[in-house]
Amino acid sequence: IGGLVEGWTGLQSGLAAVRRIDEVESLPGEPADLFGELKEGGGPLRVTFQDVTFGYGDERAPAHKGVTFEVPAGGMVALVGPSGAGKSTVFSLLERFYDHDGGTITLDGRDIRDWPLGELRASLAYVEQDAPVLAGTLRENLLFAAPDAPEDRLTDAVARTRLDTLVARLPEGLDTAVGHRGVTLSGGERQRIAIARALLRRPRLLLLDEVTSQLDAVNEQALRDVILELAEQSTVLVIAHRLSTVRHADRIVVLEEGRVRTAGTHEELIASDDLYRELAATQLAAEVR
Ligand code: ATP
């Protein structure tokens, strides 16, 4: 009887799960090509924002009130600005988590709305501060965006992002379960996983939200080298938190209250802009030791 009751309960929860899957599948949402083909090559993308306006749809002031800037193909542009200036919104619009309200965003001259969503997202890699880790093994976490990457590239990406020390520590190496049901990873380790994923994918556009903390000097230098290397093959747009990053950027765009306040190189902006000088002395000076 106990077995029957247990079986019945299991069957009920199984049916409920099937119903939920059905519900999710029938939701109107993003097109079915969401994950698209991960096409190799294609070269770095040129990105333009022309007078872009966007509001999140609440009562607050729009997040973008006419944002204009350009990132040349293969270039590296740093976004800086006070909290709430609209930096992360640039990334959300490029990933098409939201559609902009006015103005134009183009990638390689083609309107972002004309890009099949799957192709667009397959061309981008987003490395964020708190990169998500999925329940699964470390290997699965590294390969989920580039499942066909050969073993030698995986080993190389692991070594270059200094994840090899983590792998050596884990009981089953790359095949150790991580995330929710496995070993908990630090923020710095999660970001290194995200960068290793980007290395494996070779994106046409890398969106990088630089960490504000968590990395020691050795890892910091390793990541800097990897990012500079990625920058040789990709266009890079980085929300910068480091002076060393803005110094490497071809151009720095200073955002303030949803508008581009000014743009230039570090030296130009230090000489010409009060707000930039202040940001350089506070936000950007917080180098990790
Ligand atoms: P920070 O440096 O603090 O991350 P930011 O420059 O990246 O700031 P955004 O995150 O782009 O700024 O935010 C711009 C404006 O949009 C802010 O007023 C913010 O509160 C608002 N905003 C951002 N994300 C959302 C959201 N998902 N829903 C509603 N409003 C949002």
Structure description:
Helices cover 40% and strands 20% of the residues. The chain is built from 11 helices and 12 strands. The protein has helices at residues 2-26, 87-94, 117-123, 138-143, 151-160, 164-169, 187-201, 217-233, 243-248, 266-272, 274-281, and strands at residues 47-54, 64-71, 76-80, 102-107, 110-111, 124-127, 136-137, 177-178, 205-209, 235-239, 251-256, 259-264. The strands form 3 sheets. It has a 6-stranded mixed beta sheet with strand order 6-9-10-3-11-12, sandwiched between helices. Strands 2-1-4-5 form a 4-stranded antiparallel beta sheet, with no helix packed on it. Strands 7-8 form a two-stranded antiparallel ribbon. Strand 9, helix 8 and strand 10 (235-239) form a beta-alpha-beta unit. Helix 5 (151-160) packs across helix 7, helix 7 packs parallel to helix 8 and helix 10 (266-272) crosses helix 11. The longest helix is centred in the N-terminal third of the chain and has 25 residues, at 2-26. The chain is globular and about 80 Å long. The model is unreliable at 30-38 (pLDDT under 50). The structure holds adenosine-5'-triphosphate (ATP). Residues 56, 58, 60, 63, 81, 83-89 line the site of adenosine-5'-triphosphate. Adenosine-5'-triphosphate binds at residues 56, 58, 60, 63, 81, 83-89. Residues 47-282 form the ABC transporter domain. It comes from Streptomyces arboris. This is ABC transporter ATP-binding protein. Belongs to the ABC transporter superfamily. Siderophore-Fe(3+) uptake transporter (SIUT) (TC 3.A.1.21) family.
